[in-house]
UniProtKB/TrEMBL annotation:
<keyword id="KW-0963">Cytoplasm</keyword>
<keyword id="KW-0949">S-adenosyl-L-methionine</keyword>
<keyword id="KW-0004">4Fe-4S</keyword>
<keyword id="KW-0349">Heme</keyword>
<dbReference type="InterPro" id="IPR006638">
    <property type="entry name" value="Elp3/MiaA/NifB-like_rSAM"/>
</dbReference>
<dbReference type="GO" id="GO:0051539">
    <property type="term" value="F:4 iron, 4 sulfur cluster binding"/>
</dbReference>
<dbReference type="GO" id="GO:0006779">
    <property type="term" value="P:porphyrin-containing compound biosynthetic process"/>
</dbReference>
<comment type="function">
    <text>Probably acts as a heme chaperone, transferring heme to an unknown acceptor. Binds one molecule of heme per monomer, possibly covalently. Binds 1 [4Fe-4S] cluster. The cluster is coordinated with 3 cysteines and an exchangeable S-adenosyl-L-methionine.</text>
</comment>
<feature type="domain" description="Radical SAM core">
    <location>
        <begin position="1"/>
        <end position="229"/>
    </location>
</feature>
<dbReference type="Pfam" id="PF04055">
    <property type="entry name" value="Radical_SAM"/>
</dbReference>
<dbReference type="InterPro" id="IPR058240">
    <property type="entry name" value="rSAM_sf"/>
</dbReference>
<dbReference type="InterPro" id="IPR034505">
    <property type="entry name" value="Coproporphyrinogen-III_oxidase"/>
</dbReference>
<dbReference type="GO" id="GO:0004109">
    <property type="term" value="F:coproporphyrinogen oxidase activity"/>
</dbReference>
<protein>
    <recommendedName>
        <fullName>Heme chaperone HemW</fullName>
    </recommendedName>
</protein>
<comment type="similarity">
    <text>Belongs to the anaerobic coproporphyrinogen-III oxidase family. HemW subfamily.</text>
</comment>
<keyword id="KW-0143">Chaperone</keyword>
<keyword id="KW-0408">Iron</keyword>
C-alpha cells in the first residue's frame, strides 16, 4: 500500500480577498503548538509498513513555517511511515517568503517541489487580488529557487479576473512560461461566499460566462504551445512533471490529511478535520467527521477520472461502459469529448462544461 500525506498549514500573513480556504493569522506561539499537534497526529496514524510516496504542505502559507518546524514534520513522517527515497515533497509558498537562505533551508529538509502563488504577472492585477508581492518579486522567487537547487517548480495562475482582457492574460502566460518552471496550475476566479470579493463592485467587473470561456480556451492554447500540456481541468505540465500528489485525488488513491480543515480518503473512508486550529491543537488526535463511508464507487471514480485528460478507461468500468459509449456521439459531435474506442476523455471545451458533461455521461 502506498499513501500520500497532506499537511494543512493554516497560517497566512494576510488573507487574500478571493480566498475561502481555512486560514488564521500567524503567531510564533500558535505555530509551535500547531507543529506539536501535527507530530502527535503523525505518530497516531503512523504505520511503518506503509510507503509514503508524496507529501504536500498546503495552506494557508506553509512557507511561513521555519526550517526546524518543517524538518521535524518530515523527520516524523520518515520515522512513523516508510518515506520513499524519491518521494515528491511539495510546499506551497508565497513569493515574499522565499529568500535565498529560506530556499536553501527548504531544499535541505527534503522538500523537492515548490508551488508558488504567482497568480498574475501584472502588478495591477495582483493588487486587485490583494496579493502582497509584485510580479518582479515573483520572478525573483522562481530564480532564487532554481539557484537553491529546485528542479520541479509549479506556479499558480488565476484567470477571468476583474477587468481582465485577452491581452493581459496573454502577457501573463508569456512571462510565466518563459521562467524555468515545469508546472502551472490555472484557475478561473470564483467569488466565494463570505470573501471580500463577494460583493457587487467586484462581480460587475468580472468577465461574463462567454468571456471567461474564451479566456480559458486561449490560456489552454497558449500553454500547450509552450510545452505545458493539459493533464487535468486546471493543471498543465511539461512531460514528467505532473503533480504526483494531486493525481492521487483524481485516481481515487489513498491520502491522509492532517491539520485543521484537511480532508482524507484513507482506509476506505472519506473524512474531514474540524476547521478550528484551537481544537486541533487541544486534541490529542484531530477530531474528524466521516463524509463518506464507502467512497470511490462508480459515479465518483468516473467523475474524478474524467477530470483528467487521460480520461476514463472503459475496461475499468465494464458494467457501465456500454451505456457511456451510447451517450458519446452528441458530445463528440459538439467537440466536448473524444474517444479511441478504449477510453473517453474531455476536450478543453468539454472541461469548461465538465460538471454538465460528466453528469450526462455518468449519472
Amino acid at each position: 500500500m502506498s499513501l500520500g500525506i497532506y499537511i494543512h498549514v493554516p497560517f497566512c500573513g494576510k488573507k487574500c480577498a478571493y480566498c475561502d480556504f481555512y486560514s488564521v493569522s500567524w503567531t510564533k506561539v500558535q505555530a509551535e503548538d500547531y507543529v506539536d499537534a501535527v507530530l502527535r497526529n503523525i505518530r497516531h496514524y503512523g504505520e511503518s509498513g506503509t510507503n509514503v510516496d508524496t507529501v504536500y504542505f498546503g495552506g494557508g502559507t506553509p512557507s511561513l513555517l521555519s526550517y526546524k518546524q518543517l524538518d521535524s514534520i518530515l523527520n516524523e513522517i520518515g520515522r512513523c511511515f516508510s518515506l520513499d527515497a524519491d518521494a515528491e515533497i511539495t510546499l506551497e509558498a508565497n513569493p515574499c517568503t522565499l529568500t535565498p537562505d529560506k530556499l536553501r533551508e527548504l531544499r535541505s529538509t527534503g522538500v523537492n517541489r515548490l508551488s508558488i502563488g504567482m497568480q498574475s504577472m501584472i502588478d495591477d492585477e495582483l493588487k486587485i487580488l490583494g496579493r502582497v508581492h509584485s510580479a518582479d518579486r515573483g520572478v525573483k522567487a522562481v530564480m532564487d529557487a532554481v539557484g537553491a537547487g529546485f528542479e520541479n517548480i509549479s506556479c499558480d495562475l488565476m484567470i477571468a479576473l476583474p477587468d481582465q482582457k485577452k491581452e493581459s492574460l496573454q502577457y501573463s502566460v508569456e512571462k510565466l512560461t518563459a521562467l524555468p518552471v515545469q508546472h502551472i496550475s490555472a484557475y478561473i476566479l470564483k467569488t466565494e461566499n463570505g470573501t471580500a470579493f463577494d460583493c457587487e463592485e467586484i462581480k460587475r467587473r468580472l468577465p461574463d460566462e462567454d468571456e471567461s470561456a474564451e479566456l480559458y480556451l486561449e490560456m489552454v492554447r497558449l500553454l500547450e504551445e509552450r510545452g505545458f500540456m493539459q493533464y487535468e481541468v486546471s493543471n498543465f505540465a511539461k512531460k514528467g512533471f505532473e503533480s504526483r500528489h494531486n493525481c492521487r485525488y483524481w485516481k481515487c488513491l489513498d491520502y491522509l490529511g492532517i491539520g485543521p480543515a484537511a480532508h482524507s480518503c484513507y482506509k476506505g473512508k472519506r473524512f474531514a478535520v474540524e476547521r478550528d486550529i484551537a481544537d486541533f491543537i487541544a486534541s490529542e488526535v484531530q477530531n474528524i467527521t466521516i463524509t463518506d463511508e464507502s467512497p470511490c464507487g462508480f459515479e465518483e471514480y468516473a467523475m474524478l477520472r474524467l477530470r483528467l485528460k487521460e480520461g476514463l478507461v472503459f475496461s475499468d468500468v465494464p458494467e457501465h461502459s456500454a451505456e457511456i459509449e451510447k451517450k458519446l456521439p452528441p458530445l463528440i459531435k459538439e467537440g466536448y469529448a473524444e474517444t479511441d474506442g478504449k477510453r473517453v476523455w474531455l476536450t478543453a471545451k468539454g472541461f469548461l462544461m465538465s460538471n454538465s458533461v460528466i453528469e450526462y455521461l455518468v449519472f
